[in-house]
Amino acid sequence: MNYLKSQDSTQIAYTTRGSGPAVVLVGGGLDDGTENAPLAEALAQWFTVLNYARRGRGDSGDTLPYFLSREVEDLAAVMSVVDGPAHVFGASSGGALALEAAASGLPIASLAVYEVPYMADENMVNVWSHYVDQLIAALSAGRRGEAVELFMGLAGSSPEDIAGARESPFWPGLEALAPTLAYDAACIGDGPVPASRLASVTQPVLVATGGVPDPHMGGLQPGFFDAAAEVLAAALPVAERQVIANQTHVADPSVLGPVLHKFFTAM
Q1: Which is nearest to 147 in space by CA: 155, 158, 136?
Q2: d(CA 215, CA 47)
Q3: Given CB 3.0 to 4.6 Å as the disulfide criterion, which of 32, 56, 198, 226 pairs with 180?
């Protein structure tokens, strides 16, 4: 594990694997960098891969109050570890953060995002708004377990899945990460694709989704991620839309890795 200081002096923990052009991995909700670790190993055969724990997660510190701009500064600090521009991959809400970073002017060479959970219709925007209100209330009251349950429910987990998660040995770790759910909510913003904001992103962007619904997200409306991806791809000046067959919300690194390799090396 390596450490650096972001612009506001927050400690950010990261790992480095491989050699070659740089790729930075940005994790999504309730992830401390662990979820992207297998992908880092898969990509290390072609790239120098930096996988970091976003602020408030894992060995990374946190500085309050939270601002989305500070997370952009964190990504910039990780990118500064290598010389020159880096490619960036963002999973789920981490994809929204990566897109915001590109819109903010970070020198990203090219960007790939996977299943960014923007809301593609009015009903889901209303659901999202209600979730954010409930989330902030739960976190303000210190009810971390409730915050995690709210997130899992939003993501389509069944009551049985949520009850099982509560009884699992992983639950304390999820509760520890619960405050960062507000950070992910800030990355998504009001819910819809921020088309006017993303119109300034001039880098090539791969907008990818999997071809299989995630069994732990059965409550989501069919085609949720694909609908968001279509709107997102249409909003970006230079976008490539791809469905990666037979993949769920957490894609198999042995499948996703070659897709990212092809996209990043073509740029």
Answers
A1: 136
A2: 32
A3: 56
For residue 40, what are the domain limits? 2-120+193-266
Say how far apart CA 254 and CA 160 lie, in whole Å.
30
Residue 53 DSSP label: P
Q: What pairs with residue 52 in β-bridges? A: 14
Contact 238, 267 (CB under 8 A): no
* Mean predicted confidence (pLDDT) in 241-250: 96
What residue type is assigned to position 45 of the chain?
Q
Domain boundary (163, 184, 205) is at 184
The helix/strand/coil state of 162 is: helix
What does DSSP assign to residue 249? S
Q: Note whether 90 and 116 are within 8 A (CB).
A: yes
The CA distance from 27 to 34, in Å, is: 8
Residue 215 reports pLDDT greater than 80 = no
95: tokens are: 């994809």
Is the pLDDT reported for residue 221 higher than 90?
Answer: no
- Say yes or no: 173 and 225 in one domain: no
**pLDDT at residue 219, rounded to an integer:** 74
Q: What is the pTM (predicted TM-score) of this model? A: 0.96
**Can you tell me the distance from the alpha carbon of 30 to that of 152, in angstroms, rounded to the nearest whole number?**
10
With bands split at pLDDT 50, 70 and 90, how would you rate the model's confidence at 252? very high
